[in-house]
Amino acid sequence: MRRLMSGNEALARGAFEAGVTVGAGYPGTPSTEILENLARYKPDVYCEWSPNEKVAFEVAAGAALAGARSIVTMKHVGLNVAADPLMTLSYISVEGGFVACVADDPGMHSSQNEQDTRNYARFAKIPLFEPSDSQEAKDFLKLAMQVSEEFKTPVILRTTTRVSHSRSLVELGERILSMKKIGLVKDPPRFVPIPVWGRPMRQRVEDRLIRLQAFSESSPANRLEWRDKSLGIITSSIAYQYTREVWPEACVLKLGMSYPFPDSLIRKFAEGVSNLLIVEELDDFIEQHVKALGLDCQGRDVVPGIMELSVDRLLAAKARHERRPVKEPKTSAFSDRLPPRPPVLCPGCPHRGIFYALGREKVVVTGDIGCYSLGAFPPLDRMDSILCMGAGISMAHGLEKAGEPCKVVGIVGDSTFFHSGITGLLDIAYNRGSSTIIVLDNRTTAMTGHQDHPGTGRTLMGEATKAVSIEDIGRACGIERVSVIDPYNLDQAGRVISDEIAADAPSLIVSRAPCPLRERKRVGASRKILAEECKGCELCLNLGCPAIEGGEDGPRINETLCAGCGLCQQVCPAGAIVSGERA
Amino acid sequence: MSETKSIVIVGVGGQGILLASEILAQAAMLEGYDVKTNEVHGMAQRGGSVMAMVRYGKEVHSPLVARNEAHILGALEKVEALRYADYLRPDGLAAVSTQAIMPVTVSSGAARYPEDAAELLHQAFPRLVYIDAAKIASDLGDIRAANVVLLGAISQGLDLPLESWEKAIALCVKEKFLEINRKAFAAGRSYS
């Protein structure tokens, strides 16, 4: 049976068919739907959202040590968090198959950087698979699982946004379970990398790499396609699909198992073609290696290495390669007259009130990763930095210790707080900081599509569980000033925030209101503006609410969009905003 | 590339563009074509401009539509139609809903919504189906079916039989919304 599946759905299907029994991960675009789809195979597969990628990686590693087949899922920056277990799992090896599904985001559609995960495979000296469509996503997941079990190595399966979020046809197969008996077979020299045992492991990693290289020479994932031999292209991942559109006559060496490199295959291909071109997205990972083999090729000199590739960009690359002038596609004459439409905080978003309140304070705001990153845009414009998950808290402390003349407020979301905010908060309490930390607790991991986390009281398997209290964690970390505010009550929220900023001790403010998008209901009655009362001060527009539309005749509220949070009513000095009829 | 059909559907996050592209992909699949689609997730969805792409044919490689390549551009919002006009080939069909949704950049005074958007659409697209999809859907009983009204208009430019469209709608839409979506599609398909 053939089904239309996204790359992420196909990876989940592949994990199911490969006999995976444990899946763990942390949500992150474009990887999130892998685990969400795998969880649909319950009770055959146990799945969990772990608090962060490091924990998820270790959970899956533990399962693999017990002999189970497991996967862990994350976005590219998540692997930075999980890099510690990655580097040493390569040493201690696995018993059941272990595949880390890591999704890169070339073009930074939903990410703070554009790092290329392929480098991690070489760094950790483990195999790498790169599917280029959904069928391959499923097939390569199974292949990766076999390689992992046969060579007892963790494996990285790397997708990109366009592989994960494109749909294509997939042939479904049967689930094949492992015959291994579950249970750790005690073997400290294998699993305990204290130096006396770690040093031999180090050697085994290198020996394994040589065996893996021999394997990759004949792996079905690496494919030679002979056509017109005047040009040969080595490519991988989604770049393969664009290559087939742009150079339909060229010979192609498609790398599906792209690390360790199949050197003999690459040499054979290079010898068979008159010109060699490397087409790859992001880093010149393949090109550097091909050049190190002493082979003459082109690549980065014609194919851009910044932002994602496309057929359009490769048509330009083809022109450069053939030394023809680059023909730009026709663009419309009026494009500069169109108003930009950036993403915004939704109508009724509980984060809006906090940013508005912070707008009245003379503070530096260190921010974090989530929907609330949008608080950096005008008109709210109330976030001064973003680094990575959890940094909203720790960087606030660093600014303070450096002597920043303004008071510092750190902003973090609820899921992000559990992910990597707790240690930062502990640091502030321990090292006598006085920053104000605000947790924007909307009871969900909103930006990635509303996943549960340790504070929501529900697991990915759909079970009720203990909802961990952010306030309790704050107190346990040693923060004495802990308060909870309602972000829809601007006066109260503003007062508490002012008081806590003024205090000489560190404080934790939990701003609590569930994401209306998740709740699928309005916050309150929709509002309207009484035109005869409106003074045209446009203060309501400073909220940056998509439901309030400015205009020549004064602002008006789009009743369909309005979620009824009432913030505009609170900021209107003329009392011109009132409840509409609808509740 | 010549025998592959390429369709781009654009609008604002939350308008149901992904459902429209999914129905289209299913309909093409039911006709035995190879199909690829692409869509945007994550940050861009939060009220931002959103695009979905569908390509079908004998063998499809790229899931992305190149500029000046699309046979059809469907848009649920006027400015978004103009923003992605470049994707349409010169003889392509544009199906555009008359709806205007103000971006925050306009509300805040940083940018202007072009008052002559309708004129620009007629200039930009020699083959234009200009349809009040929201009104038609509302009259049928649910404004949220505007996406499927537009899909009906899009279907005018594709060679997929009605039977496959109806099967695809049944596959993608919940039972209780099936009737209205069938009607919405029919209204868009017969609109001229």
Structural notes for this entry:
- The complex is a heterodimer of chains A (583) and B (192).
- With 583 residues, chain A is of the alpha/beta class.
- Chain A has 4 domains: 216 residues, Thiamin diphosphate (ThDP)-binding fold, Pyr/PP domains (Rossmann fold); 99 residues, Rossmann fold (3-Layer(aba) Sandwich), CATH 3.40.50; 169 residues, 3-Layer(aba) Sandwich (Rossmann fold); 53 residues, 2-Layer Sandwich (Alpha-Beta Plaits).
- Chain A contains 21 helices and 22 strands.
- In chain A, the strands form 6 sheets. A 7-stranded mixed sheet of chain A has the order 3-2-4-5-7-6-12, sandwiched between helices. Chain A has a 5-stranded parallel sheet with strand order 14-15-16-18-17, with helices on both faces. In chain A, strands 9-11-10-13 form a 4-stranded mixed sheet, sandwiched between helices.
- In chain B, α2 links the parallel β4 and β5.
- In chain B, α1 crosses α7, α5 packs across α8 and α6 crosses α8.
- The model of chain B has no long low-confidence stretch (mean pLDDT 93).
- With 192 residues, chain B is α/β, with parallel strands linked by helices.
- Helices cover 39% and strands 23% of the residues of chain B.
- Chain B has one domain: Pyruvate-ferredoxin oxidoreductase, PFOR, domain III (Pyruvate-ferredoxin Oxidoreductase, domain 3), CATH 3.40.920.
- The longest helix of chain B has 14 residues.
- Chains A and B meet through β8, α11, α14 and β20 of A and α1, β2, α2 and α3 of B.
- β8 of chain A pairs antiparallel with β2 of chain B.
